[in-house]
Amino acid sequence: MTSDAHGRGTRRQVSGAVAIAVAVMAISGLHYLTSLQSVVLHEVFKRLYYVPIVVAAVMWGIRGGLATSVFSTLLYLPHVVFQWHAWSALDAEQYGEVLMFNVVATVAGVLADHLHAERTHHRDAAVELRDAYARLRAGNDERVRLDRLVTIGRIASGIAHEVRTPLAGLLGSLEILEKEFTREHPKAEFVAIAKRQITRLQEVVTEFLEFAQPAPPAVRPVDLRQLVETTARLARITLARRGVSLDASTLDTPVTVNVDAEQVQRALLGIMLADNPALRDGHIAIAIADRGHVAQVTVDLEGLTSIPVVGDLFEAFPTTACGHGLALATAERLISNQHGAVKADIVDGGLRYLIDLPLVTADPHRPSHQLPDHEAEHTR
Questions:
Q1: Is 239 exposed, middle or buried (0-12, 13-18, 19+ CB in 10 A)?
Q2: Residues in CB range of 10: below 8 A, 6 or more apart
Q3: Short-list 253, 341, 334, CA closest to 294
């Protein structure tokens, strides 16, 4: 409940209490100001006390009802004692009415409390059912997603294995033909184009295999600063051809994570080099933060010409056109293999990836795994 709603509720409670008090005092005033000869009017006025008593019981339960009945009794009794003393025949009826004030207040209050309890119980039950349904739906969505990934993985693995060998044969044949033609030969250009396209197909096949059957991670302590710096150097070459600049800022102190360095590097390259037409002539900024229990790598994509659908970024085959292929889906699986997590958010008109990796305390007697500089596999 917000503070405004709480304030409105409090004001309603106060207004209700004031209205009930004013009603009781007004009824009592009618008793005191009406002639004792008008017995019928006094009988009507006595019955009017039950209205604020029942209303208070409904609003605040037995405590509200009894408080109002006691207040009514205190205002009505002087009228009975001092003004009706000459009418002894009506004394029993008058005092009996006072008793009924409190009996009605008690009964109405108990019923109202029971009603409030039932209403609260049903409201809580409705909230629990809604939460349970949300969890069930989320679990079902996750199960469908996992089933979909398994199916896609099997299909991708089968296709990739079947295509890989013919592609290797074609590439070898083209390399032989390439030697037969000099650069000045009119057909040399077409051989080079075919070679580039087959190389691209081999990269796609490799993506499918990595997505379908990622290797078990060889986990060891790794200096995340060196890993990010090395990955940034590899990515700058490809990004520069797209007109995209890249800055990497790291911490002064070591940040040691327990991961497979090669898999994390492939995941970071997949995120940075994913074919994103909206990032042409843009900028990528990478930063590292120590969150205490995890190390977090932030990858900011700035200067996007259009904002993608965040929910579809890590889908292998999304229903909307994202243009990322399997790069981001594979990156998510590789990060998950490290017991890490990756998510994407829209921040200031740009896209931000947050990658959490398990943090470990660096052992000064055990050097961190050194990541070799090799060519980036995910070039676009």
A1: buried
A2: none
A3: 341
* Domain segments of the chain as ranges: 1-213, 220-358
What pLDDT is stored for residue 325 in this prediction? 58
The answer for residues whose C-beta is within 8 angstroms of residue 351's C-beta and 6 or more apart is 300, 301, 304, 307, 308, 310, 344, 345
What is the reported pLDDT for 318?
52
Task: Provide block-wise average pLDDT over 10 residues at a time, the chain (380 residues).
Answer: 63 86 90 82 86 90 90 86 61 77 89 90 92 88 76 71 75 79 77 82 72 76 91 88 86 87 89 74 88 90 74 61 64 87 84 90 44 41
pLDDT reported for residue 376: 41
Q: What is the pLDDT of residue 227?
A: 92
Give the full edge-to-edge strand order of the sheet including 294-302: 245-249, 283-290, 294-302, 350-358, 341-347
* Whole-angstrom distance, CA of residue 208 vs CA of residue 163: 11
pTM of the model: 0.49
pLDDT at 323: 46
Alpha helices in the chain (DSSP H): 3-33, 39-48, 50-78, 91-180, 188-212, 224-241, 261-273, 327-337
At residue 92, the pLDDT reads 67
For position 364, what pLDDT does the model report?
A: 37
Q: Rounded to 5 degrees, what angle do the CA atoms 153, 344, 354 make?
A: 100
Q: Are strands 220-223 and 283-290 parallel, antiparallel or unpaired?
A: unpaired
Q: Which residue has the tokens 């070799």?
A: 372
14 half-sphere exposure, CB direction, 13 A CA radius: 6
The neighbour count for residue 309, using CB atoms within 10 Å, is 12
For residue 134, what are its two tokens?
């949300």
Q: End-to-end CA distance of the chain, in Å? A: 51
DSSP codes joined into one string, 68-116: HHHHHHHHHHHIIIIISTT-GGGHHHHHHHHHHHHHHHHHHHHHHHHHH
**Strand pairing category for 341-347 and 294-302:** unpaired
CATH 1.25.40.10 assigned to 220-358: no
Nearest to 80 by CA among 65, 102, 96, 104: 96
